[in-house]
Design a protein that fits this description.
176 residues, mainly alpha
């Protein structure tokens, strides 16, 4: 699923004069997925989704896109945002803020059923908004395996993970 933030970036690029294909490609989407994203967002905004209309009224579309881009709640995929709202028992997505979510820990989120990818996406959202999950070392089992997999993947891409490996080795030895 494409986040509203990504859809808004495509809309903004088109409103600034780019073709739909180049706007989609610039945002890592195929032209057909870019068209779908643009149509869905325009439908949600109750605005025509035709490229000619967007080019003709660029400022109106640009303002609508920027409003979404600058709103932190739109950075998360709608499914993940809705799951967080349900899990945190919030009244609506309007109540979902990075400050509130940053009171959680990544191990807790994994324990209650959020996937590794979801926890990574939430952490990315938190970092983009100047905060992060509360720090907590992973517990033995799947949490340690997840952290080890992440360190190994970073190592495979050539990142310096000496400190991470040392911390994980210390956790493993203290658990024995």
């Amino acid at each position: 699923m494409i986040s509203d933030m990504m859809k808004a970036r495509v809309l903004l690029a088109v409103a600034e004069g780019q073709s739909l294909a180049s706007a989609a490609e610039a945002n890592g989407l195929s032209p057909s997925r870019g068209r779908d994203a643009l149509n869905r967002l325009c439908r949600k905004l109750r605005m025509p989704g035709h490229v000619a209309e967007i080019h003709a009224n660029g400022q109106v579309y640009r303002d609508a896109a920027l409003k979404i881009i600058h709103d932190p709640k739109h950075a998360l995929r709608r499914g993940l945002r809705d799951k967080l709202v349900r899990f945190l028992e919030l009244r609506s997505a309007e109540d979902l803020t990075p400050g509130y979510v940053s009171n959680m820990t990544a191990p807790f989120m994994l324990d209650v059923g959020f996937s590794r990818d979801a926890v990574s996406e939430i952490q990315e959202w938190l970092l983009a908004n100047g905060t992060r999950f509360k720090r907590q070392a992973p517990k033995a089992g799947t949490q340690t395996q997840t952290a080890t997999s992440a360190a190994l993947l970073l190592d495979a891409f050539g990142f310096d993970v000496i400190a991470a490996k040392a911390a994980l080795d210390e956790l493993k030895s203290s658990g024995d």
